[in-house]
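In keeping with the milestone schedule agreed at the kick-off meeting, the structural modelling team has produced records for the first pair of proteins. Each record is given below as a sequence line and a structure-token line. The laboratory manager (R.T.) confirmed that both were archived under the project's standard naming scheme.
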Amino acid sequence: MKGFAKPLDDLINEFAKFPGIGRRSAERFALHILQIDKGTACSLADAIRRIKETIRFCATCNNFSEQETCHICGDPLRDSKTICVVEDPKDVGRIEKLGIYKGVYHVLLGKISPLEGVGPEALSVNKLLIRLRKVKANEIILAVGSSTDGETTALFIGKLLRPLNIKITRIACGIPVGSSLEYTDSATLIRSLEDRKPLTFKS
């Protein structure tokens, strides 16, 4: 027997679909929304609607953007010849919060994962190659995670870009093996960026 009215139970079920949110947390969220005033609840609903209607991927780098080009790619003060390659748009935000990186980004929208059936064709690697034909980059920073899939992705991109004679670096291994940027503290991430090393290949 259900303990909640159907509309409330439906909302709980929707929250429970969020990553890392269990039934108990979903119930707390739903009950909180039920208890707040209607105006606040409607503001939340409007905010959700707006991001679904207005947020898109930047045509240049795949970062989240309200316009065709994101605010980073459109900033003339950024170093457009230094490109930091990351897995996900949230990684852009993570690095930007550090306040030390002045280049631009390229978001792969994933990583190579053979066990999950994700190959290189699923990533925006071709888009990066097209971009590099238009911009003479001085450095490509591979800032993907240090998991097995992250290392596979970094090596694949590095080998692909090697003939272009561009400096290719990998963020330093201050990031624990198997972790992602999302769970890395700021001090470690700063050190990883500053201590990045040239990507090496086995002969």
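The second protein of the pair:
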Amino acid sequence: MLYKYDKLNLIHEKLTFKVYWRVICIIATFFSLTWYISYQHGKMNALEGMSDIERIVEIKEHDTFDQDKLVQMMKDLNIKYPWIPMAQSIIETGHWKSRIFSENHNLFGMKEAKQRVTTSSGTQYNHAYYNTWRESVYDYAFYQTRYLGKINSESEYFEYLGASYAEDPNYIKAIKQAVEKHKLKELF
């Protein structure tokens, strides 16, 4: 049984079940947070002693791709009209199942940039390849900044993509259909 000291009446009182339960929750939370912080600190220390290649492998293994992470990253990077690149990602990778995505970590079917800042590590399978899927998103952000910075509407965005991004004449139609079908605007 637990007691608390009542300073006003100078006596010890039994704790009620409600208070007893709160104390247990506080103690459990404290130990959980302590464990989590030491676990994260251990992970950071483990990365410090690794070579660049070992760090990349470690990050690849623990930062797996999912749509929610992509949505959040696009929000964080303030990607213009993010539902459009999200649709491009779905189309270019076949819902993130293509070889270009699984081996090159290329979400958008990007080619290796030659005249702008890029995060790509070269070309493989005639497309840019990246060490992680996140690098692909950063590269798209650089692409957007360089070439789409003055775009002020969705229609201008589609016009630019239709003229310079894809070889397929039905590409823009496919993007618009993917935006509608998967309700991509609602994600942002």
